[in-house]
Amino acid sequence: MTKKIFDLNIRVKSKDIVKEIYKITYNKNFDKDRGLRDQLRRSAVSIPSNIAEWYYRSSKNEFRRFLKISKGSCWELISQMIITDELWYLEYSLENIINELNHLAAMIGKLITSLK
Predict the structure, then answer these.
(1) What are the residue ranges of helices labelled H in 1-116?
(2) Domains of the chain, each with CATH number or no CATH
(3) What is the pTM of this model?
(4) Which of 13, 14, 66, 70 would be 48's cystine partner, CB 3.0–4.6 Å?
C-alpha cells in the first residue's frame, strides 16, 4: 500500500468516526449532559483536524507530532465512550465504535512508524 493511499484511508476513516460520534450524541440522553456531548465531539473532530494539519507540514518530526496528537485523541475518545456507556447514554453497542477507534489508532501508529 502506498503512503498516499494509506494517508487517504486514515483521513476517510477519521471523518467517518466524526460522523458516527455526531449521530451517537444526537441521542436525547445527551440533552442532560451537554458537557460530555461537546467533549466527545471535540475529541472526535480533533482526530481528522490534526491529520489535516500534519499533512501540510514540511518535516517528518512535525508529521509525527500531529499524528501522535491524533492517536492520543483516539484513546481519549475511547475513554469518553466507555464513560458514556457506563452512564447508560448509548442506545446501541459500544463495541463497534471502540473497534473502529482501535483500528484507526493502529493505522495512525503504522504511519508514524513509517515516518521514522
Answers:
(1) 3-25, 34-55, 60-86, 95-114
(2) 3-114 (1.20.1440.60)
(3) 0.85
(4) 14
